[in-house]
User: Which sequence fits this backbone?
């Protein structure tokens, strides 16, 4: 590869249009060509440039998009991850925390904040309120800041955590069962070993808090097993809160014996525990690219090349760390990074690598291979950091004896590496993590992180001129490659090792995460995907198994949980076809509805409008509105789409609905954009634009029905829709960029159609 100039088509493959779209939209700076991009993101490091061209390594998204742009006067950071100092129990500190979040978001960083130091609800305070509204009440403030502040159309990302011993933890657990609250933050509970022991023994557990200012002690006894059950039950139903097994986090790393060090929280996807003001740079190695002779009996993993890539990746991340040190948004961040120097080297493409090796994800032989790869990665990374310490000096807070006595270090180093650290110390206090790689892996066409393949294929839908939906399969790239290599035409004939997230036994899924956690000194961003029939009891057992297997954190995403169905309304009133609607009766839609979609440009940005029509009459039945990444208030869109849908299914004709929408008046931002950019959709505000789009789609639907019937029925009175109870399409999550369905992987909503990721 050295000396050979490439273009992006050669790099990603001319057939990988999605990958090239992602590169163009997310990582390319203006009109730079591929070679200029490589030069910019590699910082002139030829070794790492070679590995990027070979698709063996990629920096994290912030580095790929931002590196070098500070020279153009842009306020950027190279770090994906930050943890702000936890707010103290006073109003000044609480709002200082909000200010720090806003400033960090404006540079493109995501944040974690722990609220365990805030007083619980009802604590006595010396102001007009007389008692506090509690720690949980301030989560809305931090969520609001997250929704308001972003960079380049990218909303901030936030993790809020609380200790399991805090008296407000029951309220914290329940908070997001209200789907309108704190909807721009992930939430997790810090769970300690004493709590888990109380869970196993079915004992009482003391929630406690002492308010320093007044000396007031607040205590409350709860049944540990009941509280744990509620954590798992809400995760089953709402995919939150996640669990952070805090003693494992603090006890399994290179600094577990360093008394002056402590973790303040975790970043938004929980793969990076960090101190107050802490930050981390990310990069991932594509394990799939190190498999030689794939899909054959002679397949093997190239450990020597892998070790060299690990070594060069550690060096490259340290170069980025040094270059980006003055670019952090806050002084406390610059101070923390200079003292501790965390980097986060991870992996992606694991599932693909196992398939190329002919191994089944989660089974004993696959776990054994991962154990070996993980150890080699840890040992090599620690040795590389020690060599950098020889060359450039150890990180300022490095205490060699304390590091070398940690359980993590002893379990993950060879004698040669131990000797290097003994002589030179380490350049970095934290080295390895497994972060979400949704957008990166989608761009390269590989599996993300340590996740199994989500599905062997995805269904895509096209709509014919006559309103008939045609579905076709788009195979995951590793599946497509195998089928072409072995001339397999039917995916049902794939070997047994093509397991997917929904068919995998959860014990195997956790076994895989557990073996990798043995070798990762930070943590792992990962979500266990389970089918809709997965029970609350199984979820509770999954959490217990995750704790016993030494995971640092766990969350699940159950297909069909209420997070998926935020916009789904399920009526119980059933009527039969041809029966007139009485007051209060609601039509239930069939699953043969015809869907149409429009992308609107409004005063705030983009807006996707999906409309579902009765296939026999063309009547409007459902509307789904989804704002783009910069497109206005999502809660307003949810409410408006619900009201339009309930009106349509209540028998109100589309002309009346659109007439009401057109009576909304004009919006100043809509008018301003129309004058300045001249690209807004027809209308003077969002409701009017939606109404016009619905009418346009309705007329198109009527024309299609007319053609199908062989005669012109335009202007004919609309008959009532058929009413047969069945689930519609509104129980899916949709992409804000392209409007297609989302999947939930690695703790993030990810679009397989355009590459959008909530965590990018």
Assistant:
């Amino acid at each position: 590869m050295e000396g050979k100039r490439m273009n992006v088509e050669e790099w990603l493959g001319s057939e990988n249009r999605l990958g090239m779209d992602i590169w163009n939209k997310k990582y390319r700076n203006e009109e730079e060509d591929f070679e200029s991009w490589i030069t910019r993101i590699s910082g002139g490091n030829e070794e790492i440039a070679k590995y990027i061209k070979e698709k063996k390594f990629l920096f994290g998204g912030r580095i790929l998009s931002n590196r070098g742009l500070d020279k153009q006067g842009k306020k950027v950071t190279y770090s994906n991850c930050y943890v702000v100092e936890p707010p103290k129990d006073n109003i000044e500190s609480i709002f200082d925390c909000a200010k720090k979040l806003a400033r960090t978001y404006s540079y493109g960083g995501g944040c974690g904040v722990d609220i365990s130091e805030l007083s619980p609800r009802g604590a006595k305070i010396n102001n007009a309120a007389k008692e506090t509204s509690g720690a949980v009440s301030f989560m809305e403030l931090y969520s609001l800041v997250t929704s308001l502040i972003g960079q380049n159309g990218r909303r901030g990302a936030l993790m809020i955590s609380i200790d399991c011993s805090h008296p407000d933890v029951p309220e914290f657990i329940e908070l997001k069962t209200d789907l309108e609250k704190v909807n721009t933050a992930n939430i997790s509970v810090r769970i300690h070993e004493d709590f888990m022991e109380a869970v196993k023994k079915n004992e009482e557990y003391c929630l406690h808090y002492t308010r320093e200012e007044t000396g007031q002690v607040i205590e409350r006894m709860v049944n540990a097993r009941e509280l744990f059950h509620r954590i798992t039950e809400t995760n089953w139903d709402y995919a939150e809160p996640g669990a952070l097994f805090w003693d494992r986090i603090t006890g399994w790393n290179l600094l577990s014996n360093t008394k002056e060090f402590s973790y303040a929280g975790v970043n938004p996807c929980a793969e990076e525990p960090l101190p107050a003001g802490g930050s981390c740079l990310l990069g991932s190695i594509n394990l799939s690219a190190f498999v030689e002779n794939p899909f054959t009996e002679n397949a093997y993993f190239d450990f020597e090349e892998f070790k060299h890539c690990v070594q060069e990746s550690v060096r490259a991340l340290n170069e980025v760390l040094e270059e980006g040190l003055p670019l952090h948004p806050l002084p406390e961040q610059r101070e923390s990074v200079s003292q501790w120097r965390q980097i986060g080297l991870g992996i992606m493409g694991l599932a693909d690598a196992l398939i190329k090796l002919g191994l089944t994800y989660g089974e004993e032989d696959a776990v054994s291979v991962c154990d070996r790869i993980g150890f080699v990665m840890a040992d090599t990374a620690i040795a590389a950091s020690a060599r950098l310490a020889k060359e450039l000096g150890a990180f300022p807070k490095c205490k060699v004896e304390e590091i070398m006595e940690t359980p993590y270090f002893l379990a993950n180093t060879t004698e040669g590496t131990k000797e290097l650290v003994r002589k030179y110390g380490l350049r970095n206090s934290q080295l390895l993590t497994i972060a979400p790689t949704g957008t990166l892996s989608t761009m390269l066409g590989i599996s993300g992180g340590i996740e199994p393949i989500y599905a062997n294929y995805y269904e895509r839908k096209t709509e014919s001129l006559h309103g008939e939906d045609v579905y076709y399969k788009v195979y995951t790239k590793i599946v497509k490659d195998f089928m072409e290599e072995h001339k397999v035409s039917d995916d049902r004939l794939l070997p047994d090792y093509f397991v997917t997230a929904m068919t995998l036994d959860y014990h195997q899924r956790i076994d895989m995460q557990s073996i990798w956690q043995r070798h990762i000194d930070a943590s792992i961003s990962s979500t266990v995907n389970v089918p809709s029939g997965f029970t609350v009891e199984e979820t509770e057992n999954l959490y217990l198994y995750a704790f016993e297997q030494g995971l640092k954190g766990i969350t699940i995403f159950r297909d069909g949980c209420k997070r998926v169905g935020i916009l789904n309304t399920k009526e119980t009133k059933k009527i039969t076809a041809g029966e007139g609607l009485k007051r209060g009766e609601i039509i239930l839609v069939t699953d043969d509805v015809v869907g149409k979609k429009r992308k609107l440009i409004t005063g705030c940005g983009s807006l996707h409008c999906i409309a579902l029509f009765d296939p026999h009459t063309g009547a409007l039945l459902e509307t789904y509105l989804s704002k783009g990444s910069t497109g206005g208030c999502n809660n307003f869109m949810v409410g408006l789409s619900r009201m339009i849908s309930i009106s349509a299914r209540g028998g109100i004709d589309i002309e009346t609905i659109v007439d009401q929408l057109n009576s909304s008046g004009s919006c100043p931002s809509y008018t301003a954009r129309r004058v300045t950019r001249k690209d807004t959709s027809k209308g003077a505000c969002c409701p009017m634009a939606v109404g016009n789009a619905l009418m346009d789609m309705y007329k198109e639907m009527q024309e299609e029905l007319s053609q199908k019937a062989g005669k012109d029925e335009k202007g004919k009175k609309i008959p009532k829709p058929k009413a047969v109870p069945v689930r519609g399409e509104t129980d899916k999550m949709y992409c804000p960029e392209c409007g297609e369905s989302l999947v939930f992987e690695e703790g993030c909503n990810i679009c397989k159609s355009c590459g959008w990721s909530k965590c990018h």
User: Anything to note?
Assistant: The mean pLDDT is 88. The longest strand covers residues 279-286. The chain has 26 helices and 27 strands. The two ends are 29 Å apart (CA to CA).
